[in-house]
Design goal:
The protein has no helices and 11 strands. By secondary structure, it is mainly beta. Strands 2, 4, 5, 6, 9, 10 and 11 form a 7-stranded mixed beta sheet that branches. A 4-stranded antiparallel beta sheet has the order 1-3-8-7, with no helix packed on it.
């Protein structure tokens, strides 16, 4: 199982970023996918999940209405569109799935600062 995130960076408050997670080594179309984040000194937090077919999504209250999780099963990729970013969204964002055990990507840094 391999999960490779990309798309992080430095953005001003109110800006947008789109994260991508390319998955391989398992049957992507049959697994729920998730995005987590971890800020310095804080516990890892579940941000959003999407069902295997993409029809069901769930969000943390802190990002609901601003973030959108989606997936392209033809490309084995899951996305996180982040709009109206706030400084408190600053964290390492990690892609994850449960294949036998919880699997993680290496993460991508998102920094929201003026």
């Amino acid at each position: 199982v391999q999960l490779v995130e990309s798309g992080g960076g430095l953005v001003q408050p109110g800006g947008s970023l789109r994260l991508s997670c390319a998955a391989s080594g398992f049957t992507f179309t049959t697994y729920q996918m998730s995005w987590y984040r971890q800020a310095p000194g804080k516990e890892r937090e579940l941000v959003a999940t999407i069902s295997s077919g993409g029809g069901t999504t769930n969000y943390a209250g802190s990002v609901k209405g601003r973030f959108t999780i989606s997936r392209d099963n033809a490309k084995n990729t899951v996305y996180l569109q982040m709009n109206r970013l706030k400084p408190e969204d600053t964290a390492v964002y990690l892609c994850s799935t449960l294949v036998g055990r919880r699997r993680w990507g290496q993460g991508t840094q998102v920094t929201v600062s003026s």
